[in-house]
Design a protein that fits this description.
CATH architecture of the largest domain: Sandwich
Strand content: 25-35%
CATH superfamily of the largest domain: HesB-like domain
Order of helices and strands: EHEEEEEEHHEEHE
Number of domains: 2
Number of strands: 10
Structural class: alpha/beta
Helix content: 25-40%
CATH topology of the largest domain: Hypothetical Protein Aq_1857, Chain: A
Largest sheet: 4 strands, mixed
CATH class of the largest domain: Mainly Beta
Length: 201
């Protein structure tokens, strides 16, 4: 499913051996099926394993992946690149930004009412999310809603460059938007963050 070069496997085992025993390797994709798709491999705690995860077994370790990401990881590869200064893992997933058949229903539903949906989400952001962010001297603007149901937002003011922006997206903004708009699938921050004195954290 995910081809890992021998070099990369040895490197992953080496760095995983230095972690806590409860740490596992996990692969995830932000905004899958869109041009903003971003793949990443990272450490996670085994306590976060749930029924949506599948375990991919290798000789010396396992990698955990949410089932929903599997179609996007077709023909994916992990390799290790050494540029004399540092070693870097590279995860290549050629299907990460391609839509899969399971998205068709959501795509049709969203495309049909996209203008109305955009206005509704934009109103919700101004009415219920930005007043909270205003306490931090910032706000978000709605950039787009993709056919796959991903809400693209940009942080402004004190939220631009804020160290807590990713947590704000996942634990606050995304949960609120998805709980009120069931046809949507996620929220993606497309801000070009520039940390400075204006940043809240």
């Amino acid at each position: 499913m995910i081809e890992i070069s021998l070099q990369a496997q040895k490197y992953l085992k080496k760095i995983l051996d230095k972690q806590k025993k409860s740490n596992i390797l996990r692969i995830s994709i932000e905004a899958p099926g869109t041009k903003y798709a971003t793949c990443k491999i990272f450490y996670d705690d085994i306590k976060n394993f749930n029924e949506k995860d599948i375990k991919i077994q290798y000789v010396d370790f396992n990698i955990f992946v949410d089932k929903s990401f599997i179609p996007y990881l077709k023909d994916s590869k992990i390799d290790l690149f050494d540029n004399d200064l540092e070693k870097q893992l590279m995860l290549m997933a050629p299907y990460a930004n391609q839509k899969n058949k399971k998205e068709n229903f959501h795509k049709q539903k969203i495309t049909k009412n996209k203008m109305f949906l955009f206005q509704e989400v934009d109103h919700y952001i101004h009415q219920y999310i930005n007043p909270m962010l205003l306490n931090h001297g910032g706000k978000i603007v709605l950039i787009d809603i993709t056919d796959a149901g991903i809400v693209m937002i940009e942080f402004l003011g004190g939220c631009n460059g804020c160290a807590m922006s990713s947590t704000t997206v996942k634990e606050g903004i995304e949960k609120k938007i998805l709980s009120n708009f069931s046809m949507l699938q996620g929220v993606q921050d497309v801000t070009k963050h520039n940390r400075g004195k204006h940043s809240f954290f």
